Each structure stands twice: as C-alpha cells, then as structure tokens.
Amino acid sequence: MKKYSITEISQIVGENRSNIARYIQRHNFKEININRPHKNSPKYYDEETLKIIKAEYLPKEAQQEYNKSVTASYSGVEQLLKEQLANERQDKEKLQEQNTELLKLLNQQQQLTLISNKKLETLKLELEDPGRKNIEQEKKRKWYDFFRRKGE
Length: 152
Hints:
- By secondary structure, the protein is mainly alpha-helical.
- The protein contains five helices and two strands, in the order βααβααα.
- It has helices at residues 6-13, 17-26, 47-56, 60-128, 132-139, and strands at 4-5, 44-45.
- It has a two-stranded antiparallel sheet with strand order 1-2.
- The longest helix is centred in the middle third of the chain and has 69 residues, at 60-128.
- It is rod-shaped, with a radius of gyration of 45 Å.
- The protein starts with a strand and ends in a 13-residue tail after the last helix.
C-alpha cells in the first residue's frame, strides 16, 4: 500500500496544496501515520483518499462539459415548466371568464324572478279587488302635483 502526503496529492491532482488540505479536513479523511514522531511531520493518506480527491477535482474541461449537460437538462425542464405555467394561466383566465358570465346570468335570472313575482302579486291583488288598480293609480301623483290645489 502506497502512502501519499498532501503535497504529493496536490501535485498529482494539479490543485493548490491548501485546497487539498481543506478538502481532507472537511471530509474527515483519516491519515495512515497516526503516531507521527512530531506534530509538524507530514501526514500520509492511502490510495483510496487519492482516488476520491481525483474524482472531486476533475480537469476544468470535464467540469465544464458536466456543467453544460446539467444546464441543458435544467433548461429542458425549465421550458416544460414554463409551458405548463402558461397553460395553467390560460385555464385560469377561461375559468374567470366563465365565472363572470355565470354571475351575469344569475343576476339576470334573479331580476326576472323578482319582476315575475311582482307581476304575479299584482295580478292576484287585481283578482281579489278589481277596483283597487284605479285607486293605486290615483294615489300615484307627480312631484308637481304637490303645488296644485286639492280641488283641481
């Protein structure tokens, strides 16, 4: 089993030494030489750690290709979601138009029902008392009749 120091790993991967050290510390990779003779002596890691770090720090071209493929898949999903949103908005507008039309029809129906009920009631009253219609017409006076004399 071969051992690699942080400096060797950074040279193999082609990345800055401090970035590699931070990555190792962040992911809690265990060093091979736990019983180091001195605190400042280099830490060594196994080949498995090197493979993981290599996979993380891909060459820039490979990262760009990966980013392009991810972006392309996201743009397709984004386009699909935009189309669905547009369809939902159209459906919502149609429903709102239908709702306003139904409210107008309901209002008309209520007015017609009210008018027919009034006519029905007046017809019933006429049947009960035929002379009453003339009395009601006489009672209805114009505003200008207020100033006329009662005898006229």
